[in-house]
Amino acid sequence: GIIRSLAEDRLSGLWVGTKERSAMDAILRAIGTLQERLEQLVDFTRPLNLKSEPLGAAQWLSPALADVERRCTEKGIRVVAEIAEGMPRVRADAERLKEALLQLLLNSMEAMEQGGTLTVSARFDKERGAVQVSVSDTGAGVAAEHLKDVGRPFFSTKVGGVGLGVAIARRIAAAFGGTVEFRSRRGEGSTALLTLPAEKKRN
Q1: 110 touches 71 (CB < 8 A)
Q2: Which of 111, 112, 125, 188: CA 20 to 30 A from 77?
Q3: CB atoms near residue 94 (< 10 Å)
Q4: What tens digit of pLDDT does each residue of 84-123 get?
């Protein structure tokens, strides 16, 4: 918007003082955060126009991880990816599934303000016939009394949070017959588990 443009133009000047540059950087960060919140709100309220096609992990899981890689580095977050080989495909919309995973990744990143470790694991649960992707962080965790509210639209324990990340992920997962579970312990971090039915092999 206009404020972002003015701040960026000012920063591009040759004679911006240290204090002014710091203030402009803070403005740009705040604008970026606000933009993310507005995008979450739009994503949650708009209808889901879905496609359904067979998808391998490389079509949605890998792109989502690539999208947050730079931001994790900037925030001092180490990313550990444990992706099992030979997982079956799922039937879903690649962009929507990527969006669901991104919401869970961003939720975990926001929980680690002082840095930490973000672990993403993907495996095939043969008994359930499902592909499971877990996103774990080493953040502060959520108090037991608030766990039942995680995923409820507009509930958030974060200052300035809108509480839509897990809700959006659950909405998308449900559209493809999947689920999103959330587990957390105060002081130990949190894990979101995305489960999707695996595509059945045709005889």
Answers
A1: no
A2: 125
A3: 14
A4: 999 999 999 999 999 999 999 999 998 898 999 999 999 9
